[in-house]
């Protein structure tokens, strides 16, 4: 058992036996671990073991079993996210995605920093759907999926109205569309945006604003990529899909006052 000081983000917590809890946390210096909290309700830790809590922790980390939280300071709670069901459901999906993307116990400080930064921007009110798309595209690599959204898979030219081909797991330019009879026929603007998202710096983010139709196309195409290349079905993602259906119904039938 090693004592470590690290920033940590609570991914989820669940009851264990009568009064205890198991808390899954993503730590900056030691990756993800499961922490055991005895008598969670009465514990001094009760306020910092909710999902989406970020803090500096003193941790006793056990490589092969349950780990323990010794102490904490500098707690950050994402207030705006927690008070909005839409933002909260997208943030919960990002936590689940990060949890699925890396194996427990493997240090991944850059993914940790990227996740925290994404949540901070979501909390500040930046577009949560676009932030989620950027996270989804950049985390693909962690699932072993490397897709090039920048150049034609055959002639390597760039800056053209590209389509995506599953056959080539890459792009086709107009000269090479015919190489795949089953090409995706995706809007070339979607591919252009994915190329930008893949290399997106957070400073550029404030300048991105997209129309609802384009967001919808992005959503559909990224869903397809995840189905075909990642094969992941997260409950939190299904919840977002349901929520969006309800959102659409409410937009079409506004409640009159
Ligand atoms: Zn080409």
Automatic annotation (TrEMBL):
<dbReference type="GO" id="GO:0043590">
    <property type="term" value="C:bacterial nucleoid"/>
</dbReference>
<dbReference type="GO" id="GO:0006302">
    <property type="term" value="P:double-strand break repair"/>
</dbReference>
<dbReference type="GO" id="GO:0006310">
    <property type="term" value="P:DNA recombination"/>
</dbReference>
<dbReference type="InterPro" id="IPR012340">
    <property type="entry name" value="NA-bd_OB-fold"/>
</dbReference>
<comment type="function">
    <text>Involved in DNA repair and RecF pathway recombination.</text>
</comment>
<dbReference type="InterPro" id="IPR022572">
    <property type="entry name" value="DNA_rep/recomb_RecO_N"/>
</dbReference>
<feature type="domain" description="DNA replication/recombination mediator RecO N-terminal">
    <location>
        <begin position="1"/>
        <end position="74"/>
    </location>
</feature>
<dbReference type="Pfam" id="PF11967">
    <property type="entry name" value="RecO_N"/>
</dbReference>
<dbReference type="InterPro" id="IPR003717">
    <property type="entry name" value="RecO"/>
</dbReference>
<dbReference type="Pfam" id="PF02565">
    <property type="entry name" value="RecO_C"/>
</dbReference>
<keyword id="KW-0234">DNA repair</keyword>
<protein>
    <recommendedName>
        <fullName>DNA repair protein RecO</fullName>
    </recommendedName>
</protein>
<keyword id="KW-0227">DNA damage</keyword>
<dbReference type="InterPro" id="IPR042242">
    <property type="entry name" value="RecO_C"/>
</dbReference>
<keyword id="KW-0233">DNA recombination</keyword>
<dbReference type="InterPro" id="IPR037278">
    <property type="entry name" value="ARFGAP/RecO"/>
</dbReference>
<comment type="similarity">
    <text>Belongs to the RecO family.</text>
</comment>
């Amino acid at each position: 058992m090693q004592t470590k000081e690290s920033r940590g983000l609570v991914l989820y917590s669940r009851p264990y036996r009568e009064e205890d809890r198991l808390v899954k946390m993503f730590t900056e210096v030691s990756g993800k671990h499961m922490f055991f909290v005895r008598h969670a309700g009465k514990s001094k830790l009760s306020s910092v073991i909710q999902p989406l809590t970020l803090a500096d922790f003193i941790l006793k980390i056990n490589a092969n079993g349950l780990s323990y939280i010794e102490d904490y300071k500098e707690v950050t709670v994402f207030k705006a996210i927690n008070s909005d069901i839409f933002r909260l459901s997208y943030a919960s999906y990002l936590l689940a995605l990060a949890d699925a993307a890396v194996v427990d116990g493997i240090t991944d400080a850059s993914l940790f920093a990227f996740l925290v930064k994404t949540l901070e921007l979501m909390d500040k009110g930046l577009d949560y759907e676009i932030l989620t798309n950027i996270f989804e595209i950049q985390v693909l690599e962690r699932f072993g999926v490397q897709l090039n959204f920048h150049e034609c898979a055959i002639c390597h030219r760039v800056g053209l109205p590209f389509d995506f081909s599953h056959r080539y797991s890459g792009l086709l330019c107009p000269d090479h569309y015919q190489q795949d009879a089953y090409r995706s026929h995706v809007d070339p603007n979607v591919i252009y945006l994915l190329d930008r998202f893949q290399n997106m710096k957070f400073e550029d983010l404030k300048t991105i604003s997209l129309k609802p139709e384009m967001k919808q196309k992005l959503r559909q195409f990224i869903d397809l990529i995840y189905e075909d290349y990642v094969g992941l079905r997260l409950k939190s993602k299904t919840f977002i899909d349901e929520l969006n259906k309800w959102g659409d119904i409410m937009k079409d039938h506004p409640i009159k006052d």
